[in-house]
Amino acid sequence: MIDGYGYPHLARQWLAAEGEQKAAIFWAADAVHTVDVGLFATWATVFLGVAFLLAGAALMMSGNYSRLLGGVAVLGGAMCLLHGSSVALHFALPLPVWPLGAAVDAVWLLAMGVSMLRKARRFD
């Protein structure tokens, strides 16, 4: 996690630096931030967007679980895919799509886990 380790390290270096070193460390921090934003867009798009969207679509088509459960995953995945794409392609979204999409994905993951445990107990 760049934001958990890289930023505090660079902030401490910047505080301790003097003169021209401050400018160099500032530009290094800017480069780290650029990489962080790029990685976040990829992570949000692939792991919380496409993965949840495909899992939800597969659930909806399988008939093994509730179609509603699949639809919730599709909704959360689509929202995260949209947000990750907006960060990568530099366009603004009018709604708080990221926190809502991530929350929907998290709730779906919990609900899916409970549903799978219940189904597994029936087969024991």
List keywords for this structure.
mainly alpha; 124 residues; elongated; 4 helices; single chain
Layout of helices and strands:
Blueprint: H1 2-16, H2 20-62, H3 67-89, H4 97-122
Helix pairs in contact: 1-2, 2-3, 3-4
Walkthrough of the structure:
This protein is mostly helical and 124 residues long. It has one domain. 86% of the residues lie in helices and 0% in strands. It is built from 4 helices and no strands. Helix 1 (2-16) runs antiparallel to helix 2 (20-62), helix 2 runs antiparallel to helix 3 and helix 3 (67-89) runs antiparallel to helix 4.
Q: Tell the overall outline.
A: elongated
Fraction of residues in helices?
Answer: over 70%
Overall domain count = 1
Q: Tally of extended strands?
A: 0
- Biggest beta sheet summary: none
> By helix and strand content, what is the structural category?
mainly alpha
Question: Termini distance?
Answer: 41 Å
- The ordered H/E elements are HHHH
Average pLDDT metric: 91
| Unreliably modeled segments | none
**Proportion of β residues?**
under 5%
Tally of DSSP helical segments:
4
Radius of gyration, Cα only, in angstroms? 20 Å
